[in-house]
Amino acid sequence: MMSDTRFRRIDEWRWEIPPTGGMRVPGLLYTSEKLLKGMGADEGPRQVANVAHLPGIVKNSLAMPDMHWGYGFPIGGVAAFDLDEGIVSPGGVGYDINCGCRLMTTRLRLTDVRERIPALVTALFQNVPSGVGSRGPLKLSQKEERQVLVEGAAWAVRHGYGTAADLETTEDSGVMAGADPEKVSDRALLRGKDQLGTLGSGNHFLEIEVVEELFDETAAAAFGLEPGQICVLIHSGSRGLGYQVCDDYLARMVKHVGEIGIDLPDRQLACARLNSDRGRDYLAAMACAANYAWTNRQMLMHRTRETFEKTLGMGPRELGMRLLYDVCHNIAKIETLPVEGKEVRLCVHRKGATRAFPPGHAAVPQAYRKAGQPVLIPGDMGTGSYVLAGTQGAFTETFGSACHGAGRVMSRTQATKSCRGRSIPREMAERGVIVMASGRGTLQEEIPEAYKNLDDVVEVVHRAGLSRKVAKLRTLGCIKG
Amino acid sequence: MGYRIFDHTADLGVEITGASQEEVYAGAAGALFDLLTDLSSVRESEERTLTVEGEGPDDLLVNFLRELLYSWNGEGFLMKHCTVREAAPRRLTAVLRGETYDPARHRIRMEIKAVTYHQASIRRTAAGWMGKVVFDV
Fold first, then answer.
1. Window 89-118 of B, Cβ < 8 Å to A
2. How far is B22 from chain A (nearest CA, A)?
3. Which option is the CATH number for B13-136: 3.55.10.10, 2.40.50.150, 3.30.470.10, 3.40.120.10?
4. A477 within 8 A of A208, measured Cβ to Cβ
5. Shortest Cα distance, chain A CAs vs residue B29, angstroms
6. Which ipTM did the prediction report?
7. A40 or B59: whose pLDDT is higher?
8. Among this protein's residues, is A68 annotated catalytic?
9. pTM of the full predicted structure?
């Protein structure tokens, strides 16, 4: 049964949800006939319509092709708000603030290290803290933690975890301005002090991949990608600190949302005006969590470099593990974007959506400026990932945004049920993927069929002009929490 | 345990039934910790009293579970037993018994990131009371 939300097909890749009731703007879904059918009774489309109720929303409430039922906002949702009339919503960012991906390239070729993949996966599993409640290599003092929250990834580099070059290829150089640790609760600080440098659990992972196919050789060359090359993809976020920031502010906003005269179709959409103290405080705390996440991924990358060097007996030069790019996919940002031919400053919420800025944009690192911003799209653990490049189409149509992954189709309980009597590690090994996980249930919840087909999702953003396909990578080894 | 899991694409929905509101609140607390760990491995060596406030019964349910989740995520407390002493529309007091997490004896089944407001409710039914909540996992 399909969700009862009504659609109007615009073209092969675009479906509109015409405004009804309290919707201020139409919903717009980027998807395909096949993906839409596959969503079944998923409530995502209704959530796209719910987001359209929020004050100050500009143009459309958008959904990417990996969209699925979240809480409040759908996962894969994008919405932009006017700075005077509009709101910011912690639920439109998500609990895992600045959850994101980081892709590193190496000088290694599959032919050189094929036999060493099992040893690398085992060593990574031992060296990179993962799983529920895992602790990192550091126990931060309160002063250090506050520095992390303000400085972001540069803090890690300053303390020997990586190099200054890493910052050049991190979105926003790994630091969000406006971070104020005074706006972060003691609870959040407590949860953050010993989790820096940990992967987390659930769908967070660290993967060894090989570049399998190039679609755009010029962009691939600019990104430093070659067929047969070994790469590493990290997917992690702001850990307990970020969850707590979201939780704290959501509770505050739920309590006061009535006062600002906003009628919400779902309490999880609780929000505050962007030009209010409550809204500004959230953005200052959210920036802290975003900076924590960038520091976290920087430290995870450093640990990965060390592990590769030690396991393979190589120096840093020989290994050449370079950060291709780091993007966040759970965030709210103040950005200047074109709306009806005018440049406007907006607060863009991307909840399970990736920034995809076009060629020539000043925010794109110099080396990639002709190609466009790298957009990293992880898939399920048995498949691999895509590297795309941002486009002008995304800039003008979707507030510079594209999809963020394959998107779940199966609930975790359904996935676990379908695993009865199966050995997931063995099935993955038969596909040529070595997996190791801390949690017993994680692999079952994360089986490939629990996700949409990554090729189908990426095809939509490519064909709709929201990003261009550059390369496809195949998974060789995966560690999960 | 008087709860069942309902399907939600990314997250984990839980429905709790009971003869009274108090039973539903206590059952929701039990469900949270049953999802987190094997309760048979948890001893009742520590007692805590928890009081939370809310705008109404639905809000109270979310706030109660948020506090319990923090007692785990922030303080490492695993609850085995919960008695709800008072469940007024805007205030809830519960006595919790359990112990501090010991990695040698307790296995943690999953990470629960948060208790969401999405679809959270507590209602009277023909058979008694039912609570509903979605965890972000």
1. 101, 108-111, 113-118
2. 23
3. 3.55.10.10
4. yes
5. 18
6. 0.93
7. B59
8. no
9. 0.96
